[in-house]
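Good morning,

Attaching, inline, the backbone tokens for the sequence recovery test we're adding to the shared suite. The designed sequence is right after.
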């Protein structure tokens, strides 16, 4: 059964080549992913885009600033009303 030995060797060689091809393909895939990531990062830098965490931080700062502005607006409105009352002579003095 010398023919069977040749066939087995052929199948082993074929399996080895297929395994090697899969290894090469996996390496190419990893390299392609790294190149794509590098290109995407370069594009983000060229377009001057911000990362999500930076955007979230900026949005949080804007939210806090808006809340502070609204609180200050309410205080100014209350102080203006109090001043108008004092100027009209209808309110008590601040010292009382």
């Amino acid at each position: 059964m010398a023919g069977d030995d040749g066939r087995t060797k052929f199948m082993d060689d074929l399996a080895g080549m297929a395994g090697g091809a899969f290894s090469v393909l996996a390496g190419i895939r990893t390299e392609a992913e790294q190149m794509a990531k590098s290109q995407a990062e370069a594009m983000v830098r060229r377009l001057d885009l911000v990362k999500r965490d930076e955007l979230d931080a900026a949005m949080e700062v804007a939210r806090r600033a808006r809340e502070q502005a609204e609180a200050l607006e309410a205080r100014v409105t209350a102080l203006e009303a109090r001043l108008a009352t004092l100027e009209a002579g209808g309110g008590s003095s601040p010292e009382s």
